[in-house]
Write a structure and sequence with these properties.
Blueprint: H1 2-16, E1 20-23, E2 30-34, E3 44-47, H2 52-66, H3 68-87, H4 89-107
Antiparallel strand pairs: 1-2, 2-3
Helix pairs in contact: 2-3, 2-4, 3-4
């Protein structure tokens, strides 16, 4: 499977450069990495182009770019939840999931439930 080999090769290269592989962090089809100890904190993910996970990331990004009010709501939510990152990352992700699902449904022209 070429895509699997490509993800594996990228994972090996990133870990060799000091990135810490975190697995999928509960989102299938995505590999998450923490930056090297001397790097700035941010999120880095590997996803396969065209996969469902890739589409989710791109659709959410494009929707937020086109809807600055929704981007501001999302930013406010994330800032409010930020303290959870230090103590319970799963709770942080879970607390965002319903809002992200709503935004993705709207981005794809579906009625939010």
């Amino acid at each position: 499977m070429p895509r699997h080999r490509e993800v594996r090769a990228a994972t090996v290269a990133l870990t060799g450069a000091g990135w810490r592989h975190r697995g999928d962090l509960g989102i299938a089809g995505r590999d998450a990495f923490d930056p090297p100890a001397d790097g700035c904190y941010h999120h880095l993910y590997i996803v396969v182009a065209g996969s469902t996970t890739h589409r989710d990331h791109v659709d959410l990004r494009d929707f937020l770019r086109a809807n600055p009010d929704e981007a501001a709501r999302y930013a406010a939510l994330k800032h409010g939840l930020a303290p959870l990152l230090a103590v319970d990352r799963s709770a942080y992700v879970e607390a965002k999931s319903a809002f992200i699902k709503e935004l993705l449904e709207r981005a794809r022209g579906q009625a939010a439930t």
